[in-house]
Amino acid sequence: MPTRRRTPKLTHLNAQHRPTMVDVGDKPTSRREATAEARVRLPRAVADALRASGHRTKKGPVFDTAVIAAVQAVKRTHELIPFCHPLPIDHCEVDIVQQASGTIVIRCSVRTTHRTGVEMEALTGASVAALTIYDMCKALSHNIVIERVRLLAKRGGKRDFGHSA
């Protein structure tokens, strides 16, 4: 007997197909984790200048500022994305590495114990860190490209995704 494919259902629409916040009140509380990544591709001259300066510009320490911006964004995701629930954030870790190619890789991992996941928080944190790096480096070039913002992994809830967060 052939297996039937389930048609994905948009959870943020009510019976009248109007946008609504998902009711998570009856869901069990559990540990939720997510990791997202963003990449910032720098022109070679910018990558070399940033590395030579110890990742500092006239605006200050680029990577440290991006980490702080990411954590702030994680905590305020519900204010930015209309249907995200405000969540107590148990942990947020942001790693930023400049590869030999000059590309900067940002990974943002978030954890909570709640009724809904933290994928949007991790994605928002990685995105805002990338935007902060762009802002702090744009005096050197506007040919900076933010790319490949993606969820790498999530654990908890109905199903896991990707590798362990």
Summarize the structure.
The protein has 165 residues and is α+β, with helices and mostly antiparallel strands. It is 28% helix and 29% strand. The longest helix is centred in the C-terminal third of the chain and has 19 residues.
Question: Could you explain how this protein is built, in words?
Answer:
This protein is α+β, with helices and mostly antiparallel strands. The chain has a domain at 54-157: Molybdopterin cofactor biosynthesis C (MoaC) domain (Alpha-Beta Plaits). 28% of the residues lie in helices and 29% in strands. The strands form two sheets. It has a five-stranded antiparallel sheet. The radius of gyration is 18 Å and the shape is elongated.
Extract low-pLDDT stretches. none
Distance between the termini: 36 Å
Level-1 CATH class name of the domain at 54-157: Alpha Beta
Q: Biggest sheet, strands in spatial order?
A: 4-5-1-6-7
Please indicate the percent range of residues in DSSP E strands (runs of 2 or more).
25-35%
Kindly report the name of the CATH homologous superfamily of the domain at 54-157: Molybdopterin cofactor biosynthesis C (MoaC) domain
Helix content: 25-40%
Write the CATH architecture name of the domain at 54-157: 2-Layer Sandwich
Summing up helix and strand content along with how strands pair, one would put the structural category as alpha+beta
Q: What is the H/E order?
A: EHEEHHEEHEE
